[in-house]
Design brief:
globular; alpha/beta; about 260 residues
Amino acid sequence: MARHGGGRSWYGKLIGAALGVTVLATGASVWSAQAGIVGGPSPKATASATPSAAAAPVAASIAHASDKGARGVNITIDDGPDPRWTPQMLDVLRENGVKATFCMVGTQAQAHPDLVKQVVAAGHRLCDHSVSHDTAMDKKSEAYQSQQILDAERMITEASGGVRPLYYRAPGGAFTPSSRALAASRGMRPLGWNVDSKDFEKPGADAIVATVQRQLSNGPTLLFHDAGGDRSQTVAALRRILPWLKEQGYTCGFPVR
């Protein structure tokens, strides 16, 4: 998700310890939907950051371009998976014949492995979005950043049944040279965005659609969210945005690697 207000997280804190998370009986997301909460330590990975099998290194520069070329766009969806909203996102994508990149938080993937597998089975790609979505991780030690990246990589890979994330998106864009180099060495291309839909602010579906249409000239990678609160507006907006992109002659693809 985008970072605003000096690195403040719009989603607040993760509920529970990063690896001891308990899925609530209601099936609710482990993310807090409350915005703007600051202060106190961020949740940390508690397991050893042991990387999975080695992957071929990729470029450490932040990717924005689409593999579909000049008229390609990349749909990227952050912060899930979420048991309520991710299935609805998958439905909309399927109905429009679109593949997307899901930037998953490690604890969310661990809590909902069935959803991770559904994302993979539908032909979408996975992206490491850290263990606990700490938007200030660029201000912390390299050891902390490494743990956030490597633990999330392992958690997502295990939840998927062995499919690795192909990208790394720093929470709030909190990249550092060392975090980009580490991700790239693990075969995960650092992933940026060009169009921030602002859907996390819940401005209404009309506003989300208008923002995307207005900002599309900025570049091909579009940012949406499937967790962190009520995402009904995002679902509604995507039902309009995806057909509109096709009408404008765009093809949805994946970020370059």
